[in-house]
Amino acid sequence: MPSSHHPFRRREAAAPLLLAACAGLGLLALGANAHAAESPAVSLSGSAALTSDYVWRGSSQTQGDPAVQAGFKIAHSSGVYASVWGSNVEFAPDTHASSEFDFTVGWAGKVADHWGLDVNVLHYRYPSTTVDLNWTELNGTVTWRDNYWLSLAYSNQALGSKERGLYSQVGTRFPVNDAVRFEAAVGHYFLDDVYDRSYSHGQLSAIWAVKTASNANLELRLTAHATDRNAERIFGDSLAGSRIEAAVQATF
Questions:
Q1: Running DSSP on this structure, what letter comes out for residue 192?
Q2: CB 44 within 8 A of CB 29
Q3: 56-66 pLDDT, tens per residue?
Q4: Is position 5 within any domain?
Q5: CATH number, domain with residue 130
Q6: Contact between 101 and 81 (Cβ < 8 Å)
Q7: Cβ–Cβ under 8 Å, residues 117 and 108
């Protein structure tokens, strides 16, 4: 998550924080599984990923370095859910930010034939930093036929500042068969209150889904990212611009 406080970033000791987080999440998962045994209406899912670059809304969060990411989600049949997700990051040296944890509470479900809605509150948290980079965002996504979406995200603490920001994205996916699909999205981030300018970005992904013997879903993803010149002026050429991201993700 870029901010005016940290245009250049460094990862420091991310592994201990991620290991501690994974241990805590593991305990959470065991508790959720025990509860799910009593109440089938509750489900638990998770994911783990390795990516060549953590790219968020068009800009790198790791100075182009690889990232290890993991998350868990607990959902009720009513549509209410909560999730936690973590990744290493590489911010400015003076912030000492080395990891990011995202905590989400929301509701997702069908609102009409072929139409879905996901609304949530998302809190971005950066432990052990020397400056306060934490912030919260309200998100909403409308989907049609599971293949087209429009997302809006608003915060009055955009990118850890004290100012407002509004992010918008439209996207689509093109399934080729059960294993292969393409996804494309275009986003625009209104950040005039934060940086006196806004920026746009786009991305195109090719995804290959593999079913493993353990019934876990494995996805191999290759994504091309590009931003406009405003993003490069805000975040710098090393974080914005054009880049290729390769990732492998397992969901269970």
A1: H
A2: yes
A3: 999 999 999 99
A4: no
A5: 2.40.160.40
A6: no
A7: yes
pLDDT at 11 over 50: no
How many domains does the structure of the chain reveal?
1
Those residues with Cβ within 8 angstroms of residue 119's Cβ, 6 or more apart along the chain or in another chain? 106, 107, 108, 138, 139, 140, 141
**Contact (CB, 8 A) for 19 and 26:** no
Give a yes or no: residue 2 inside a domain: no
Question: What is the model's pLDDT at position 40?
Answer: 67
> Cα separations (Å) of 131 from 89, 136, 154?
15, 16, 22
Residue 155 tokens read as 């915060």
Write out the two tokens for 16.
């201990």
Of 44, 57, 56, residue with least CA distance to 84: 44
Q: In whole angstroms, give the CA distance from residue 166 to residue 188.
A: 8
Q: Is the residue at 26 inside a domain?
A: yes
Task: Please report whether residue 3 resides in a domain.
Answer: no
Query: Which residue segment(s) compose the domain that 32 sits in?
Result: 14-251
The three-state DSSP-derived secondary structure of 10-52 is ECCCHHHHHHHHHHHHHHHHHHHHHHHHHCCCEEEEEEEEEEC
Report which of 229, 216, 205 is spatially closest to residue 55, judged by C-alpha positions: 205
Residue 164 to residue 169: CA distance in whole angstroms:
17
Tens of pLDDT along 216-231?
799 999 999 999 999 9
Q: Are 121 and 159 in contact (CB under 8 A)?
A: no
